[in-house]
Amino acid sequence: MPASLSTRARAKVNLTLRVLGRRADGYHELESLVAFAGVGDVLSLEPGRRLALTIAGPQGAGLPVDDGNLVLRAARALAAEVAGPAGQFRSGSFHLVKRLPVASGIGGGSADAAGALRLLARLNGLKPDDPALFRAAASVGADVPVCLESRARIMAGIGERLGPALPLPSLFALLVNPGVPVETAAVFRALGLRAGDVGPGAGKANALRHDHVPGLVASLAEGGNDLEAPARRVAPVLDTVLDQLRDLPGCRLARMSGSGATCFALFDDCRASATAGKALARAQPGWWVKPTMLR
What we know:
Number of domains: 2
Structural class: alpha+beta
CATH architecture of the largest domain: 2-Layer Sandwich
Low-confidence stretches: none
Order of helices and strands: EEEHEHHHEEEHHHHEEHE
Largest sheet: 6 strands, mixed
Strand content: 25-35%
Mean pLDDT: 95
Helix content: 25-40%
């Protein structure tokens, strides 16, 4: 039996997020520049006959280990995509060390699901670009396809349209979550678009200068996150988070990721982000505060 396999499930950060409108089927049409952080969960797979999942880690309490977990849903989705003779698809027992806060707008569950697909692809001899992986990812969740490679790019539609990987310069960031889960559906309800409505991000230019950090940060400052305002109505603590991030010495940009409640701030270098993180952690000991690099 092959040895245990492992992978990192890195946090996904929406550097920009535009809501272009709401489709007739009820889904919202989005466009987002995403990057991936150096922090994340760790997922391992012990090959075996039985599909199973165990969870540990500082953010793992209360998470389901049944088919409601995206790791197991991803495993079953890929098995269905590559179904062959009985027993041909290899699986096993997953162990997740959960370090990213849940329901936090940084794609933790989606990254875990994508990690499961990568591990199963290695175990079953599938190439990283096998179309079955993308189909399985898309069937599990909107953010899972972009997490497969975990590389910076533009994602659009409901997550099914991915642009080419972008060679973004490294961004020194501080990720902050106040410990308040924010339900994505509640944020979209607060946005208030009906089927057929045009969204606040429709028609906005998307000129991205990404060859150097100052140009990229200037481009990001011209963008925004169209879900930030409704999320602040759902979770008013976001006002405090963003205000405190903007007040940190050296902060160049502060913004919410995804549908919240995780926010990020950008700095000139790793020393500035680390210093800011220590200061904020002292001021808000109950918050999740992580200096990291986005790329």
